[in-house]
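Narrative of activities, Objective 1.

The group set out to show that a structural description can be obtained from nothing but a protein's sequence at a throughput compatible with the screening campaign. Below is one input-output pair from the validation batch, recorded exactly as produced.
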Amino acid sequence: MSRFITIKDIAKKLNISVSTVSRALRDTYDVNRETREQVLAMAQALNYRPNFNATGLVNRSSHNLAVILPFVANYYFSTVITGIQEVAYQQDYNIMLHITNDSPERELSIIKNLAASNLDGLLVAVSSDSDACTHFQQVIDSGVPIVFFDRVPDAIKTSKVMQDDYNGAFEAVEHLIKRGYRKIAHIGGPEGLSFSRKRKKGFLDALAKHGLPVNEDWIIHSGFSQENGEADTLELLKREKHPDAIFAANDRKAIGAIMALKKKGIKVGEQVGIIGFTNDPACTVVSPTLSTIAEPAFEIGKKSCELLLKHISKRNFIAEEVVLPGRLIERESTRRYTEQGINC
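Output recorded for this entry:
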């Protein structure tokens, strides 16, 4: 034939899906023997030859890994990258870094441009409200494995590494309750993200456990920046009733909340408690210092890369979902004081 034969041609001839053809050629565990033999026979009849990506995958010749993430000027993601690099460089793999700036459109563009690259695999944290899941699935179907970390799409079946968002949020809110706060608000991330929903669920379940009411006016979703946290908190202060504590989806938002309260002359800790999520170095610089749930960012990076290398080396490696626990760190922003300055 005059043109290059692709797996789409094989799929069309056999009247099966492209993903089934791809998995059969890679000899994955979820394709039965009869189907695999039919695919191999048709591939031979059509004189099919794997594309450059697939050849690199099988021979492990490129030793190139792509990392796609929303931000790089961010403590959490920079620490994840450090963990990824430790594993990748030990195994003689190169890292190609791509930044989406939290834009779904930019994410789609990166994925399309990567289609012609010589890659062994991808490590991805999806952007906020990403609608590129089908494009990620196409990459996997083409024979290039993907492992998702931190921000993961629920719809795609592959290995994923996450922090324990639900229990971390539950522990953060329970800490506020144990410190005497009762009217607790939540300034969350975008509702479309899986981990935003998990942190909100932990918040709600902690309130339910202790018999505290949920005030829907005290739940606000927006972005992850300090500016978002400040704006969300100022919005809370416009409400008829004010909360006496705030659980923020991340530390940057929590720091924004501290800035907003200080501008309004409200004493952080004494009048309104604040707790975040990440353990950004800025937690110990801001005044008062910020209580938080420390995320295992370095370990997430290491484990993600380890799983990706297993997918690369073993065609039938079964996908794993790994959830790593966080750690509560109490600082000044959740300490209430009596008039004499003694800890409550």
